[in-house]
User: Fold this.
Amino acid sequence: MEFEILYSNQFKDIEKYGKSYTRSPKILAPCHNAIARIVEENTNFHTELEYKFKSDFGNKKIDIAIIDDKKTLVGAIMFKAIRSNYNKNHNNYKETMLGESLIIISKNIPVYQLTILPTNPINGDSIEEIDIKKDDEYNSLIDKSPLGNLLKIGRYYFDIDYTTNTAKYSNRKINGSLTTVTDGIKEFCKEVELNYVNR
Assistant:
């Protein structure tokens, strides 16, 4: 499956180019391009990467912006690929997600917070497990979102084989996550189109 390959390649590139490559924008570019392609194949909209969005609550660079023919923002996909040190940074991820979503949703624009992450992330020289209670926090956000129906959350877990640097979809899921990343993007596209018609 496409995102299994793309995520695997991130681990392989880090092994090839070194840990500093994790900070390179090149590591996320294949995923961003794939997401943009899926959006354009499943809507009549266009996409723009690294779109600069302004609102009364602040400015935000959107990873994959969905825009109409007039280049007006109609949907936003914020993408994160986590590879290590998840438990230590869990609260930061969640708080950043809510803050940046608020900026975009303030203009009645749907946001898809799309995250791919390992069930077994590396932490230093060891491998850790992500506490299942952290999924409960996201399930509560999904079920009782203070930002309403305009915030969609997709978290897709992958089991990583660090000997071969390969990623396979895990059976672990949170509420609302579909079978694959591609399925989740397609479902969000439907909601963007519906919101656009009813605005």
Q: What stands out?
A: DSSP finds five helices and eight strands in the chain. Residues 2-198 form one domain.
